[in-house]
Amino acid sequence: MQEKILQVFRKYKTNCVLFTNAKEVFYLTGAQFDGFWLLFVKDKTYAICSKMTENQVREHFKNKNINIHAVVSFYKTVSEILKQNKTYSLLIDPQYINAADFFLISEKLNFEGINIKNKVGILNSLRIVKDADEIENLKIACKIVSKVCNTIKSELKPGLSELDIHYRILELFAKNKVMESFTPIVASGENSANPHHRSSTRKMTENDIVMMDMGCVHNGYCSDLTRTYFLDKISARCERVFDIVRSSQNTVIKDIKSGLPISWADKTARSVIEEAGYKDKFIHNTGHGVGVEIHEMPSLASTAEGFFLTHMVVTVEPGIYIENEFGVRIEDTILIKKDSCEVLTSAAY
Fold first, then answer.
1. Radius of gyration of the chain from Cα atoms?
2. 69 neighbors 78 (Cβ within 8 angstroms)
3. pLDDT recorded at residue 265
4. CA nearest 152: which of 174, 167, 137, 131?
5. What pLDDT was estimated at residue 100?
6. pTM for the predicted model, two decimal places
7. From the CB of residue 320, how many other CB atoms can be counted at a distance below 10 Å?
């Protein structure tokens, strides 16, 4: 944790930074509970919490050189600590702080003559590349979601509603002692043309299509997986669209590696779909980073800057959506390696 904070200090030319978001706090400390803030001032670390979480915080940081303050007013305590350390500038990330906290911190600290320095994505450059422990947790999360998806595939049949499948996914996650990383998407028939459809009471019929997007969290790290299945016979048109999407994904996965421009992934996936005549039916980016949040940097967009780095974990998820008819999306979570990638999700296609 201290080495990461030193990198933040050097990058942003500061000696004081505050984190209030539970995901960021988890990333830095491994604490899988919320209700406390982390304040770094020079060479000191402070955990600011309420009386309700004091015992958890003290237990988690036992034998660590961290100052713990159980208080009523978090804002006032931050101000007092800064003044005690003769520090009059504080770095925060407005992307990860709610509006009420941002307003109250700014009001309190400005009144005390402390300058607020806002920078978006303070931890992004650190979070974007995963270490060995993070990769292991991500692999386990991907293994679990793949197993759940395979079970669901074997149970699909006419008469089941989208909500039946939705809650079965959650039941299987619970049996594997994990939580969902986002609300599952189960979209059948014409609903599959909506990328972020909300599971409904629509029941599947013979020869129906069902698109399922699901993910779980293991030790704080997320997985993400989408499969599109057909209950029985598949029309020639549906089969062609499926093959185009699969080809688009394969074209990216077989060549992606460290050193390629991040924009390459979207341009490559999109070129396959455009060449097949469905240019206007691919309506989202090709993927995104995955970690302690289901959507992290980088965004696999055609306008993305930067390059893929070894040990980034991202999704590759091209799709074609034909309004009022059907849609196909196929998504896998992958680990970027020096000369290739490792596909972490393994559910049947």
1. 23
2. no
3. 98
4. 167
5. 84
6. 0.94
7. 24
